[in-house]
Write a structure and sequence with these properties.
Layout (H helix, E strand, L loop, with lengths): L2 H19 L80 H4 L36 E2 L2 H6 L10 E4 L2 E7 L12 E5 L30 H12 L3 E6 L12 E16 L7 E9 L11 H71 L1
Parallel strand pairs: 3-5
Antiparallel strand pairs: 1-6, 2-3, 4-7, 5-6, 6-7
């Protein structure tokens, strides 16, 4: 087992013990995600092969388009020709709420999420800069994309994991996360923001959020400060979980609102990176009296485990590469230092040669006199 894996397991055990000490409420029987079977695909009709030499049927000629001179109003908004001669109340036909996508309503696409489906787009009707629950959005509501969470004011940022204000965080998103974070559903650890060079490097100019840790995280970072403030004020924080989260409590697809939590602890510790840069850590605890969290089905969990194994292998390879890069950088620095020393020695020898030459010229001048 590599040093990275040893440190990872040690951190996970420590975080599990910390969460257990919070004394969170967890139901004895946890509900499983219910698999909704997808509708069978429609059978395609077989095209009968016609080997006869009959000539093809004549092509139908479309009738000329009817004019709207008699039916169209003298003035006003242009309307569809299909409604010619009809009295249509267009204002009453406007739908305020985004309908469920046709792929789901028609049964073509199924889902294991049993909660209500939120909007996927549209104008917000509530302010996401609110501490606590959002009116009309039930715990268990889910969305296909993050923009739906934003439209329903549960979690405003489309990408960022933390949203908050002066009195603490409004909401956080769990998606992916750090290798040593622990999610027990009703309590979890969360790693803060910052410490990565999002602008990239000369070798990797587009690292963005996949960039390795290159400096310490601090509570001076605005997002980390928000979560630390939540630990002090104990204002409730909305939590969504995404399908990329490596946890049995993650939804099989999309993003799900899992209710309100409080931040119980905030601390600094060495992160899982080659140089031991510090990271900000937080312990969340779910408020009691909320619907139980569904647990992933066995099939979905197996798929998630395979994805996790692939990601862990990739992370280990990246750690090895980072370590090699660091060692190469040290070698380059040593080599550069050696070259600088040689340059200094060469310069000193040149000065000595110049001094010797000047001394010989002075002696010649004296002899001439």
């Amino acid at each position: 087992m590599s040093d990275y894996e040893k440190r990872k397991q040690e951190n996970i055990k420590k975080n599990q013990a910390l969460l257990a000490s919070l004394g969170f409420d967890k139901p004895t029987l946890e509900p499983k995600e219910k698999i909704i079977k997808k509708a069978p695909a429609a059978k395609k009709r077989k095209v009968s092969e016609d080997t006869s030499d009959e000539s093809p049927a004549p092509r139908e000629v479309k009738a000329p388009r009817a004019t709207l001179a008699d039916s169209a109003p003298e003035s006003g908004v242009r309307r569809s020709s299909r409604n010619a001669g009809k009295t249509v109340d267009y204002k009453n036909e406007i739908v305020d709420r985004t309908p469920v996508p046709v792929a789901y309503s028609s049964g073509v696409k199924g889902t294991e999420n049993t909660g209500p489906m939120g909007r996927e787009d549209g104008k917000r009707t509530h302010d996401p800069k609110t501490y606590g629950s959002i009116p009309g959005v039930e715990v268990g509501t889910w969305w296909e994309q993050r923009r739906g969470c934003s439209a329903d004011a549960i979690h405003a940022p489309w990408v960022g994991g933390i949203s908050g204000g002066k009195q603490g965080a409004y909401s956080v998103a769990l998606s992916g996360g750090y290798d040593d974070d622990v999610d027990l559903g009703y309590a979890f650890t969360y790693t803060g923001s910052g410490g990565r060079d999002l602008k990239g490097t000369k070798q990797n100019p587009k690292n963005l959020r996949t960039a390795p840790q290159s400096s310490d995280q601090t509570f001076e970072n605005n997002f980390n400060k928000m979560l630390k403030r939540s630990c002090e004020t104990k204002k409730p924080v909305r939590v969504i979980r995404g399908y990329k989260l490596r946890s049995p409590y993650a939804p099989s697809e999309g993003f799900r609102y899992d209710g309100l939590y409080t931040v119980e602890r905030a601390w600094l510790e060495k992160g899982l990176n080659p140089k031991g840069y510090l990271v900000c850590k937080y312990a969340f605890k779910r408020l009691p009296g909320q619907p139980a969290l569904p647990v992933r089905s066995a099939a979905s969990e197996a798929e998630a485990s395979e994805d996790t194994a692939d990601e862990d292998e990739q992370s280990a390879e990246e750690e090895v590469e980072e370590t090699k890069d660091a060692e190469d950088a040290v070698k380059d620095e040593d080599q550069t230092t050696g070259e600088e020393v040689e340059d200094i020695e060469d310069a000193e020898e040149m000065v000595e040669d110049e001094d010797q030459t000047i001394g010989e010229e002075v002696e010649k001048a004296e002899d001439a006199e």
